[in-house]
Fold this protein.
Amino acid sequence: MRTYRKLELFVTLLALFGSAVTVRAAERVTLRNGSSLVCDHQKNLDGQVRLYLTSSDENYVDVAAADIVSVETIRAGNAIKPSTTPQATGLSQSSSATQADIPALLNQAGAELHLDPDLLASVVHAESDGRIHAVSPVGARGLMQLMPATAKDLGVRDSFAAEQNIAGGTAYLDALLMYYHDDIALALAAYNAGPAAVNRYHGVPPYAETRRYVERVIHDFNQRKLREARQRSNHAPWVSMAVIATAPAK
């Protein structure tokens, strides 16, 4: 379902303080392969450039300096924003979505960013088991388990508001899929362990937790697509379907 396209990797950089808006500068970096991304700041590292996707120093990707064609300073307000906002779902920011609303929210978020809602559902299942108020031992919150700093950068004011959390988590996953050229395994690994770890190991990091996470999401996603195929074929016993995505090799 995902539309293959060249789009900018975005990051939301507006900080809201009451009615005042602080507008920060961002940088649009164009790469030799024709893609571009918007970063908060960057650092030179012996032939490589570390591009920080958010104001935090924990969320970054490394690219070869020779692969950078141009760098343009832009107003953060001109950066691409998540199009799946709480308002886009038909629910206000102050509304309280319930468990019953989750499928509709996933469908809306997927439609806005051209992502398969089954993939989003699989991420939600792995991250929070569908619990709106889930909190991890390290402080990740909500359905798609956003860390507070990541949620802030994505414009999520309340991680326990399902519509905001799903919008932010979907936007972040979409950005990762674009950066990793729609490689689901790499995008999921980056969602779990961070882009820095994926780039450091040039693939899915050798972390047991991350590998289990990627395998779990992909297995659940494939099972959902197989069930859909069987339903479309009236549950015919001979129905088979190619694997939608593959887990990383052990």
About this structure: The beta strands are 15-17, 20-22, 25-31, 36-39, 41-45, 48-52, 60-64, 68-75.
